[in-house]
Structure formats: C-alpha cells, structure tokens
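seq as requested:
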Amino acid sequence: MHRPMHRPSSAGELEDWLAEHGWSPGRDIGDRADALIAERIEDFHSQGQELASLSTARSFLHSYGLLRLPISPTVTLVLDPTGGYEEDAEDIVELAGDLGVPLFPVGYETYEGGVLLIDEDSRFFYLHDTGPYFLGRGPTEMLVNRLTGKTVHASQYYV
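struct tokens:
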C-alpha cells in the first residue's frame, strides 16, 4: 500500500520532518560545508562571475548541508551549493543586483533545477525558470513556505 507523502505545514511539525531526513539540532558537516562553498565560488569564476561567501550561507550549510528533502513525489530539495543549472551564475548575479544585496546559492531542486539562494539577512530566494521568488526569512520559514507552496514574487523586494 502506498503511503501518502507527509509534508509539514507548520514550524512545529518541521523539526520532526527534518529529523526523518537526517537533520538534528547542533548538526554540523564541518569542513565539507567549507569545501562545497569553495567549489561553488570556483564555479562562478569559471562562468566569469564573482561570488563572495556569506556568513549566513556558511552557517546554513554547516547545519543543513547535503540534506535531501522531498518537496513532492517528483521534486527533492538538495541542500548543496554546487548544484543548479548550466550557466546559472549570471542569473544569480542579476537577481542579486535587482535585490541590491549579495546572494549565495545553498541548494537546488531536482526535476527543474531551480536554485535556492540566501542573502546576508537570512532571507531565502528561489530562482526558477518561471522567475525569482521570496521564500521567507530563516530556514524554518523558508522550508515551511516551500513545502506549503507559499511564495511571493521576488520583485516585491527589488531596490
């Protein structure tokens, strides 16, 4: 019998759901997070763009890095900054310019390859082929909003 996929719809349910997928309070992937950040910065350079590490990205990746979180039966959010789509650096730099803040990629989604980004104020944005979206501030709000489909077009945050 196929069990329907459970997705948390509140912050209270989120921690248990995250624990089911390998996260725990105090989790830290250590040097692996730093290596992933360095790899993504190098990838930007190879695409002709600059990317600076953000402390918020580093903190997020140390705690949540390399988790694979099922968003739907066909889509998984992979918290790895090295994923994305071919030649995505230019689009990320353009969105950062529109927002007036630096962004750093911290994950991607399978299936369509959208990129999850964080800014220096722990605001999360999602760059998808249908456009850029704001997902919330902080990991909890971002994940609950992504899982429940609550998104706002990022243009509301442009400078």
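The longest strand covers residues 103-109.
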